[in-house]
Amino acid sequence: MAAVIAVLGAIIGGIALWWWRAQQVKGAADSVIDVAGKARGMISRARFRQRAGQSVLAGVDTPGMAAATLLYSLATLRRPVMRADAEKIDGLLKTVCRLHGQDREDAMAFAEWASGHVSDTNDIVRRFLPLWTSSLAEPERRDLVGMAVTIAEIGGEPTDAQSVAIRRLSEGLLSD
Q: Which end of the chain is more exposed for a tag (fewer CB within 10 A), N or C?
């Protein structure tokens, strides 16, 4: 009887050992699969962010809304946009761009939202240059550059990032 118990114990012990080893292998395989899934997810998220960043601006088809988006984004390069900054942008849209009522409110709301979703102001300039060059006359282009300078100078001299964006804007609009 002792021999039968010893043999059964050895068999059960052997099965338990192999089951434990299989669980260890399964755990290692799960870890490898998990790391591969995370890497694939990071790549997918990066692609999505790139597409989303481009599509945020795709719906803009008026120079006024494009200008609002640029001005708001320029303001965010220095600090979070304060109420006074937003009022300054709103005033420029009203007087220079001649946007009134609901159009101006829509442009400001979109600009606030878009500036949080587009990480680089230069992307905004690059995306909207064709729209501005095709729909704005030379004096209006100069006004747009002047508005950008005005917003960048709120709170002091323009930052390096603001200066680069304004230089790109100037070169794209006024180099003709």
A: N
- Range(s) of the domain holding residue 51: 1-58
Provide the number of structural domains found in the chain: 2
Calculate ∠ Cα 111-72-105, nearest 5°: 45
Tens of pLDDT along 6-63? 888 888 888 888 988 888 888 888 888 888 777 777 776 676 566 555 677 777 888 8
Helical H segments across 79-159, by residue range: 83-95, 101-117, 121-135, 138-152
CA torsion sign for 63, 124, 68, 74 is negative
